[in-house]
Structures are given as structure tokens and as C-alpha cells.
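R.M. (postdoc): so does anyone remember the format we settled on? I'll just put the C-alpha cells first.
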């Protein structure tokens, strides 16, 4: 029997995301049949915009969401490693 909860954290690396796609991605995660135990959004963008912040805050109330802002701009692998720390 399949569990209805994903037992591992889901990491979403982003870098200067298009706001529409970020919102669609988070909404898709929210609406999926498997509930995510923890979602870590790891942002490698040079600065946090108020638009990204408002989308993140909206989904923090819907998901078990952790936002990590890594300002190093070192690429996706560094961003993922930073999120895992």
C-alpha cells in the first residue's frame, strides 16, 4: 500500500524565477495527491524580491515550507548542497 505522505524533504532550487512559474510550481506541489513532509525552496538569486517573498509567505501557510536564501550564485549543485545543510 502506498503512503499518502512523501517521507523525504523535497528541495526546489530556484534562481531569479519567473513569478508565474514559481507560483504554478508551488501550487502543483500543494495540489498533488502525495503530501510533502517538507518543502525546501533554495534560492541562489543575488537578492530576494518582495514578489518572491510574498509568494513564499503565501505558500508557507499551505505547506511545510522552509525558504533558504543563498546569495552566492554558485550554480545549482552548490545551491542544492546549501539547502541540505
Amino acid at each position: 500500500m502506498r503512503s499518502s505522505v512523501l517521507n523525504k524533504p523535497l528541495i526546489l532550487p530556484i534562481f531569479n524565477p519567473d513569478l508565474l512559474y514559481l507560483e504554478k510550481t508551488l501550487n502543483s506541489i500543494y495540489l498533488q495527491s502525495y503530501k510533502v513532509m517538507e518543502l525546501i525552496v533554495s534560492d541562489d538569486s543575488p537578492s530576494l524580491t518582495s514578489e518572491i517573498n510574498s509568494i513564499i509567505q503565501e505558500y508557507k501557510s499551505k505547506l511545510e515550507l522552509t525558504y533558504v536564501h543563498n546569495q552566492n550564485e554558485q550554480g545549482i549543485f552548490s545551491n542544492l548542497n546549501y539547502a541540505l545543510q
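R.M.: ...and that's the designed sequence above, right after the C-alpha cells. Also worth knowing: Residues 14 and 43 are 5 Å apart (CA to CA). The chain is about 40% helix and 20% strand.
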